[in-house]
């Protein structure tokens, strides 16, 4: 195999249950992405970013049942960058030893969100962020950005 032989094992959901502090639960990211295999074929997987592990499943039901297709250890990732793919919006993860994994998101916004989350989990500086100090016109009062028609708007990554 490809080092992901754990994908053949079945776990009961209680075996995989992790007690996380409340703030860590907010940092779990889930969603559909396409994954390019070694044969260049694309397969759709349900990805779950948990800590510095990127887990992937056939679908959300498989996640609930603990049937894992694979795990990517993000501590081995050196770069996360955009890449051209045949369709949709590609992102490429490269490891310190030169291996590459290509994923694809349905929209540019989804790709950007995943790239930021993956970089954060891997401890990589997000090069898309402007680290210069904001000018006066860039600053937005908190009240106008955090409320909408008097309701608090949640920001989901």
From TrEMBL:
Cellular component, GO, one term: actin cytoskeleton
PH domain segment(s): 26-123
Pfam families: PH (PF00169)
Annotated GO MF terms: actin filament binding
Name this protein carries in UniProt: Protein outspread
Species in which this protein is naturally found: Triatoma infestans
